[in-house]
Amino acid sequence: MSGSVERERQTTMSTELLAQQARGQSSTQTPRSQTPPAERSKQLQRRREVHRGSLLVANFASAFESLWANRLRSLLTTLGVVIGVAAVIAAVTLTQGASVLIQARLSVLGTNTLLIVPGAATSSGAFSSLGSQQSLTQGDADALAAIPHVVQVSPVLSLGAQVIYGSQNWNTRIQGVYPGYQQIQGWEIASGRWLNAHDELAGLPVAVLGQVVANSLFGPSGTNPVGQTIRIGSQMFRVVGVLQPKGSFGAFTQDDVVFVPFTAAVIRLKNTGYVDQIQVLVDRAEHVDAVQRAVDATLLKRHRINAGSPADFQIRNANQLLQTAQQATQTLTLLLVGIAGISLTVGGIGIMNIMLVSVTERTREIGIRMAVGARRRDIRNQFLIEALTLSSLGGILGIILGLLVGWLMTTNFGVPFVPQPLSILLAFGVSALVGVTFGFYPAVRAARLDPIIALRTE
């Protein structure tokens, strides 16, 4: 008897509820017969959009609430993504800074400069490093000066030596060059003068100092270097000029150098019939290829090398050097990004693991939500949003950490700090993709739970 009364009461309540809803709809809406079909379609579409928006907001709120309830676990889960994204940002920042610096250094040479170096020496069939073979001579350099469109030519004779002034001494590199070397390399004078033709022809013991050498020898005493006498090895040289600084590339400093006339270097410092390299300046960039072919033909003829036989020298222009440097930095970038990708994969596995644990812990909650009307896609979206939030948070923290590490590394290595917005956005997008990819399986597994079995879970 009581059961039938209860059912009648529930039926009455349901009827009253439907009536109230009908009255509410009739009071706020135009009668169906009076509403055009197009307007009714627009109203239904707006209701669906509002409904979907409210569900999305509810899913985000539920996801954030769940992650906040397990703050420490969530933070530890994102560490893999943080490290991976930070590694990508730091690697790209460092290599991009190095690439910018290399381009700046090579741009000083211009696009119309040729560099000729000896080939690699062989011993028992094994090749040594490039430049180890002694094959270029001063006569080769003088012969190249007769090629059309060649503006300047200079052989370069290099050696390391100790430079002494008073009680100060400094180990540096000495380069014997022609006067035209200043124009080829774009050196500017800070005080005094550069080497001239008379210095070269007479083999005078004069020297032009780089800024580092000048500061090391004359900085402590505050003496003006121009006009002073220094000792290079066992030979005395008079300083005639000091160069403007060009800067450094990592540990290599361009300003740590002393230039002397080529003839003086051969007579007083390094008695040899060979040179370490030859540099050629072409009048215009469009003539570089033609001059390079002429240089190659001239040297092959002078060295008596038949066509088709391997040459004992190599010719490179500034564009080739720049392309080589860019390829090297790109290879390094890909290597570092690949290593960072492994870290991102490990971070994604960590996210999937913790999301599977979360599904197991919240099985009963999932059953209750389904019982009160939540659809399977609502459950799936909630867990996907949680995984996406975890990975996105890791991406943001990784970007901040990566920029900080990149700034410290570029400052330490002396290269420009050049953050790349595209790489930052790409790293963040990859981190979000990792969250969605590795969070999809746990989300689908949660959505496929049987609500009856889920409700029985303690």
Notable characteristics:
about 450 residues, alpha+beta, 2 domains, six-stranded mixed β-barrel, two-stranded antiparallel sheet, 15 helices, about 60% helix, disordered N terminus
Overall description:
The chain has 458 residues and is an alpha+beta fold. The chain folds into two domains: 54-102 and 325-456, no CATH class; 134-311, no CATH class. Helices cover 59% and strands 17% of the residues. The chain is built from 15 helices and 14 strands. The chain has helices spanning 2-28, 37-69, 71-77, 79-109, 138-144, 181-185, 197-202, 211-218, 262-269, 288-302, 318-361, 363-371, 376-413, 421-447, 451-456, and strands at residues 113-118, 122-123, 126-127, 150-165, 168-177, 189-192, 206-209, 229-232, 235-243, 248-249, 252-253, 257-261, 277-282, 313-317. It has a six-stranded mixed β-barrel with strand order 4-5-12-7-9-8. Helix 2 (37-69) packs across helix 13 (376-413) and helix 4 (79-109) runs antiparallel to helix 14. The model is unreliable at 1-33 and 122-129 (pLDDT under 50).
